[in-house]
Design goal:
Elements: E1 5-14, E2 19-22, E3 25-27, E4 30-38, E5 43-46, E6 56-64, E7 67-70, E8 86-90, E9 105-107, H1 110-116, E10 120-122, E11 143-148, E12 150-151, H2 152-156, E13 176-180, E14 185-192, E15 199-203, E16 217-218, E17 224-227, E18 234-241, E19 247-251, E20 254-258, E21 290-295, E22 298-305, E23 314-317, E24 337-341, E25 345-350
Length: 356
């Protein structure tokens, strides 16, 4: 079934004093809201273009592979709640004016950071949520934000108060969120006990057993699929910050389920899906890199065409011949989409398309 997706409103107003950098400097960020509507029995490809509000905004004083020291913090245990999943994002240029690393993200080891209880963040350099190829030592002097991740619980809801979600005692009867693994979909379902007194996210994987999965991360720039099992249309409003800095996208080899970093329709050229970023063109769709947009039962396949050596590279839709869609804004902010690439692409930057 076709699932409705509506972008109800974007930048609403500017928050006052989101966080202090210094005594005389405050940081404000625009706030946005979006609304999703999931019809009964639908499978919807979901992207999350807004951010949770920062727990702290600061300046990077020093950085190594496994640690980031902040200029104005004294006890980061007070900023990072126990059990939270958080990342550090580079949101401003270095003291030399370099913007190379703006948009890079580094996964925070929250338990270790809380134990240290000082101005240093413990960083997990091998986390899949840490931007590869970026070094904290190159980011000294940059403005940074500590943000909590969206999780299954914080975005879709959890517990007995999550009335819009359809819970069930089995995978087939419950709403699901599915993640792409590179080979197929890994399902998480909203499980209820028989009495309905306990509701939580569980993994369908036997290896994860019966453990609560509420804290499973929805990473920036990564899409998911929502499977609606409820008998009514589920409305899901979401509110958060609008990213005003560049966004670094990570694209692996083969198929990746991706999402936009900004709450507006974008074209492949705006998203920087170009040869200069590492995308491969070809004279036939079968061997060219592709963008696959699934809307209900309809899949639009765009391929990166170069008819002859030296010819202009164009994103074309396999269904409409030679039309150039490179500047067509078919990447919707609320919809995730598959990108199929011949080889892994080095992380590349998409400039913020919004008026700051």
């Amino acid at each position: 079934m076709h699932s409705l997706l509506r972008l109800s409103f974007l930048t609403l107003f500017v928050l006052g004093a989101a966080s202090l950098l210094q005594a005389d400097e405050v940081v404000t960020e625009p706030l946005g809201g979006v609304n999703y509507a999931f019809s009964p029995g639908s499978q919807t490809y979901v992207g999350v273009p807004i951010l949770r509000s920062p727990l702290r905004v600061d300046v990077l004083a020093n950085g190594i592979l496994t640690a980031a020291t902040l200029t104005n913090a004294t006890n980061l245990a007070q900023d990072l709640p126990a059990g939270s999943r958080c990342f550090l994002e580079i949101i401003g240029p270095s003291t030399t004016g370099s913007t190379t690393n703006v948009g890079a993200r580094f996964e925070i080891d929250v338990p270790t950071t809380r134990l240290m209880a000082n101005n240093t963040l413990a960083i997990d350099p091998v986390s899949p949520y840490t931007t590869p190829g970026r070094s904290l030592s190159d980011c000294i002097g940059c403005k940074v934000a500590i943000r909590p991740h969206w999780t299954l619980a914080t975005f879709f809801g959890t517990g007995t108060s999550a009335g819009a979600l359809q819970s069930g005692t089995s995978l087939k009867t419950a709403d699901q969120v599915q993640f792409w693994t590179g080979q197929g979909m890994a399902a998480y379902w909203f499980r209820s006990n028989a009495a309905g007194t306990l509701k939580e996210w569980r993994s369908a994987s036997a290896s994860k057993g019966t453990a609560n999965q509420d804290n499973t991360i929805l990473p920036p720039g990564v899409g998911v699929v929502f499977q609606r099992s409820g008998a009514t249309t589920m409305s899901l409003p979401a509110y958060g910050d609008v990213r005003t800095n560049a966004f670094i996208q990570v694209v692996g080899a083969g198929r990746s389920l991706l999402a936009s970093g900004f709450p507006m329709d974008m074209s492949p050229h705006q998203a920087n899906y170009l040869f200069a970023s590492g995308f491969s063109s070809a004279s036939t769709p079968a061997i060219a890199d592709q963008i696959q947009v699934q809307t209900g039962a309809v899949k639009d396949v765009y391929w990166y065409c170069q008819e002859t050596v030296g010819a202009e590279r164009q994103w074309r839709n396999v269904s409409d011949g030679a039309t150039n869609h490179s500047a067509t804004p078919f990447l919707h902010p609320l919809r995730s989409f598959f990108v199929k690439t011949a080889s892994a692409i080095e992380p590349f930057s998409t400039e913020c398309p919004l008026d700051n």
